Recover the amino acids of this structure.
């Protein structure tokens, strides 16, 4: 499945203020509320936590550089 850049931007915009799950290059998994993003996929998360281990580690507000992100799991859209 091929998704164009404008579709990704729309998906990300629709996910603002929702919880997203990120897989990073350093094998960490971060979860938090998506506050903002840019064309380079730099993300700002609030109430972020490292959920890589059994016990989540609170991180607070974080800025993640886009080239460190391997995968983003967006919330499922509610069907109306």
């Amino acid at each position: 499945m091929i998704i164009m850049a404008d579709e990704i931007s729309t998906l990300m915009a629709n996910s603002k203020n929702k919880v997203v799950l990120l897989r990073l290059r350093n094998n960490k998994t971060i979860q938090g509320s998506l506050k903002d993003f840019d064309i380079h996929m730099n993300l700002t998360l609030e109430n972020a936590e490292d959920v890589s281990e059994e016990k989540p580690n609170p991180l607070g507000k974080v800025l993640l550089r886009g080239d460190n992100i391997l995968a983003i799991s967006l919330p499922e859209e509610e069907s109306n």
Remarks:
- Residues 28-80 form a domain with the SH3 type barrels. fold (CATH 2.30.30.100).
- Residues 44 and 63 are 4 Å apart (CA to CA).
